[in-house]
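Colleagues,

For the teaching module next term, I've prepared a clean inverse folding example: a structure given as tokens, and then the sequence designed for it. I'd like students to try predicting residues themselves before seeing the answer, so please don't circulate the second half yet.
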């Protein structure tokens, strides 16, 4: 295994372990901590913090710490969040939600930047197109990252399955399930939203803390610090450059392509927020019980994981626009079903089919949008991926806030409108890119052999995003 592929595998396994814990907790918040809406409030605070982090912290953190140690620090914030769930209250859950939110944007932006740098270096060494290598790298990342939904939810289902509480939903209870739910968690089925006993909750959270710490150790020991020049260079910069770096996220919005990608980036947060806040609570938990949420989300994780890898490889033949359209048609079908379907315990397969199809579509949004950012903005990686996390978090916040007071059918119509806008603008960006391709890192493969080492050294040094668009010279 080559050096760059080894690093991709290390960071991908780290994400799989980390989000086995954090991802599952996000999906469970609306059901596990339903009292006074504390779970949804926690998720809202988390993604509001991500917005602030994306605007003010991410580019600076990556510049001063480097990608590797930014990833490590972000993982530590996730472990703190898991610990905060041991004794959930407004005093413990809200601060830990702020901490994980502040660390989340740097974590993801540093990882995306790291993969983009590695993909560019690998492309030069192997005389390949950088966008194809970057697509494959993000496919591997999301293959393992999406599989965390399988392991985390399997663990939660096995643990909570030991709870002796059974669910006996009556016809009156089911009236409040599905699209007829209007943000009233207390009127759902009798026992379905009952919190499992503390012993089981502590067992699950203990396992989650363990895998989170293991992810941190994996990255700290085995991930190469390929951008190690960042830290000493950053410390020598003047205050003006620091301020310039701090504002890099905002300057990125001067790029028309970045503005056109805001809807699809926000849609990713909207669709995942709906899945974790509304589908799990108003469809699965309401009709089946909290102990089956994990099993339904496993189906989401399996298809998301497998199709992330498949689409990462397939995109070089089909093109990203084709995959975006496929995802839009798939999720459009799911939304229409959710608008027409009345969930009932006797229709168990439908819960899993919707989760699986949603995971397949999400695999496209996650892998191809990240890869598109890497291709379009490879000279402004840190700021671009900070914008990605910023607008995705805006979508999450909207989803969680709306979950508290809007009926499910209104949220589905809103989701449908943003979906249609997103795929339209994505196709416009792809069309413009096909007509006027962004100069890629792969252009370096035309360099004569004796100059290639100089090219690799340049590529390993992250660009200085000053006030004007930065370029490698």
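(Answer key — instructors only)
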């Amino acid at each position: 295994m080559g050096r760059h592929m080894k690093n991709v595998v290390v960071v991908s396994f780290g994400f799989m372990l980390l989000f086995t814990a954090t991802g599952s907790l996000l999906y469970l918040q609306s059901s596990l901590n339903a009292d006074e809406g504390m779970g949804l409030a926690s998720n809202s605070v988390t993604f509001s913090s991500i917005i602030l982090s994306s605007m003010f912290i991410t580019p600076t953190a990556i510049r001063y710490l480097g990608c590797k140690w930014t990833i490590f620090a972000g993982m530590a914030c996730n472990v703190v969040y898991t610990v905060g769930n041991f004794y959930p209250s407004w005093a413990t859950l809200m601060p830990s939600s702020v901490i994980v939110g502040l660390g989340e944007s740097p974590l993801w932006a540093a990882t995306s930047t790291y993969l983009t740098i590695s993909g560019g270096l690998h492309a030069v060494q192997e005389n390949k197109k950088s966008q194809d290598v970057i697509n494959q790298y993000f496919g591997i990342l999301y293959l393992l990252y999406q599989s965390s939904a399988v392991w985390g939810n399997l663990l939660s289902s096995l643990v909570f399955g030991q709870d002796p509480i059974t669910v006996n939903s009556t016809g009156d209870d089911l009236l409040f399930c599905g699209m007829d739910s209007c943000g009233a968690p207390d009127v759902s089925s009798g026992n379905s939203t009952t919190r499992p006993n503390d012993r089981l909750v502590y067992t699950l959270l203990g396992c989650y803390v363990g895998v989170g710490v293991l992810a941190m150790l994996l990255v700290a020991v085995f991930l190469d610090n390929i951008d190690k020049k960042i830290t000493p260079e950053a410390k020598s910069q003047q205050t003006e450059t620091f301020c310039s770096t701090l504002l890099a996220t905002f300057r990125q919005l001067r790029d028309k392509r970045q503005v056109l990608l805001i809807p699809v980036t926000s849609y990713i947060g909207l669709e995942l927020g709906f899945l974790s806040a509304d589908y799990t609570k108003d469809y699965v938990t309401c009709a089946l019980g909290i102990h089956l949420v994990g099993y339904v989300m496993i189906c989401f994780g399996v298809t998301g994981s497998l199709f992330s890898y498949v689409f990462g490889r397939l995109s070089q033949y089909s093109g990203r626009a084709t995959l975006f359209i496929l995802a839009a048609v798939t999720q459009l079908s799911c939304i229409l079903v959710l608008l027409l379907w009345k969930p009932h315990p006797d229709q168990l397969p439908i819960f899993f089919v919707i989760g699986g199809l949603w995971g397949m579509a999400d695999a496209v949004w996650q892998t191809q949008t990240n890869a598109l950012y890497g291709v379009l903005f490879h000279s402004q990686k840190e700021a671009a991926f900070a914008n990605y996390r910023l607008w995705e978090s805006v979508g999450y916040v909207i989803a969680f806030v709306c979950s508290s007071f809007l009926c499910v059918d209104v949220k589905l119509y809103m989701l449908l409108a943003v979906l249609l806008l997103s795929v339209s603008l994505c196709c416009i960006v792809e069309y413009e890119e096909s007509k006027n391709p962004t100069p890629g890192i792969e252009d370096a493969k035309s360099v004569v052999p004796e100059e290639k080492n100089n090219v690799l050294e340049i590529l390993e040094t992250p660009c200085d995003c000053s006030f004007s668009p930065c370029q490698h010279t």
